[in-house]
UniProtKB/TrEMBL annotation:
Top EC class of this enzyme: oxidoreductase
Protein family according to the UniProt entry: Belongs to the 3-hydroxyacyl-CoA dehydrogenase family.
Name this protein carries in UniProt: 3-hydroxyacyl-CoA dehydrogenase
Taxon lineage: Bacteria, Bacillati, Actinomycetota, Actinomycetes, Propionibacteriales
Domain annotation 3-hydroxyacyl-CoA dehydrogenase C-terminal: ranges: 187-281
Pfam families noted in UniProt: 3HCDH, 3HCDH_N
Organism: Aeromicrobium yanjiei
InterPro entries assigned to the protein according to its UniProt record, in alphabetical order: 3-OHacyl-CoA_DH, 3-OHacyl-CoA_DH_NAD-bd, 3HC_DH_C, 6-PGluconate_DH-like_C_sf, 6PGD_dom2, NAD(P)-bd_dom_sf
Length: 283
């Protein structure tokens, strides 16, 4: 499991890429065009500062070596030609994920194991689109994976035991604590706990019960947590809560998505990685 290809270079995809490279893996960073890939050097510099600040063993030389092990590509066949493992981190929309995996299945080597980083979708929702359901499962990372280092491994009924353990061992090799999820669960363990918190915070805000700062302050002070729910939204980035809520049957959740799109995404306030989201970080 030395050769990794990551599909998608957004907030979490870029973290998976650098984390794997930092732990010695050779990584291909795939995205749909060279314009997107051209933004990666700035992303590595942003993450460099976080690694140096958060990890006692991090050095400039180690981060430089990690970046040197990353090869960008916008050609899917080229990106997959040597892959032992593919991790998909494309937008949280079922049709997009299924379409991506169908294209991957057409060109990936037989040896390659497929893993989705989906936050909420089940592997069984996607497995048939991969062409190799027995070698398909989920590997889900918490945001800021260099310090929130859990890797939740979750198969579906058709996932082979060997593929499951191979992915769990890979997670451990790149510095994760492998969380072996015993049965399919929307949201795994982490998001089954986290999403209700974030949804409750959004509901309180949209309905005018309390403002963002008060909601976050309440959670931090009353629980001792280091961050409130809207600070967590900023770490996750705005695209994920927008995609998760825009088609909801709940009118409050749909309104939350509309506000995110109008007042944040459309204004470039994409979250911590962009320097501004619900809060300003640029200073």
């Amino acid at each position: 499991m030395q050769n990794l290809t990551v599909l998608g270079t957004g907030v979490l995809g870029s973290q998976i890429i650098l984390q794997a490279a930092y732990h010695g893996k050779d990584v291909v960073a795939y995205d749909i065009n060279d314009e997107i890939l051209g933004k990666l050097p700035a992303r590595w510099e942003f993450l460099r500062e976080r690694y140096l600040a958060d990890l006692p063993d991090a050095t400039e030389e180690k981060v430089d070596a990690a970046v040197a092990r990353i090869r960008p590509s916008s050609d899917l066949a080229d990106a997959l030609k040597d892959a032992d493992l593919v991790i998909e981190a494309v937008p949280e929309v079922l049709d997009i994920k299924r379409d991506t995996w169908a294209k991957v299945a057409a060109v990936a080597p037989e040896k390659t194991i497929f893993a989705t980083n989906s936050s909420t979708l089940l592997p069984s929702d996607i497995a048939d689109a991969t062409g190799r359901p027995e070698r398909f499962l989920a590997l889900h990372f918490a945001n800021e994976i260099w310090r929130n280092n859990t890797g939740e491994v979750m198969g579906h009924a058709g996932t082979s035991a060997d593929a499951f353990e191979d992915v769990a061992r890979f997670a451990e090799q790149i510095g994760m604590v492998a969380i072996r999820v015993k049965k399919e669960q929307p949201g795994y363990v982490l998001n089954s706990l986290l999403v209700p918190l974030l949804s409750a915070a959004a509901d309180l805000w949209v309905r005018g019960v309390a403002d963002i700062e008060t909601i976050d302050l309440t959670w931090r002070k009353a629980t001792g947590a280091p961050a409130g729910p809207f600070q967590i939204f900023d770490v996750v980035g705005m695209e994920t809560p927008y995609n998760l809520n825009v088609r909801s049957d709940d009118p409050v959740k749909r309104e939350f998505a509309e506000i995110i799109k109008r007042d944040y995404i459309d204004k470039g306030r994409l979250g911590l990685a962009a320097g501004k989201g619900f809060y300003d970080y640029e200073a």
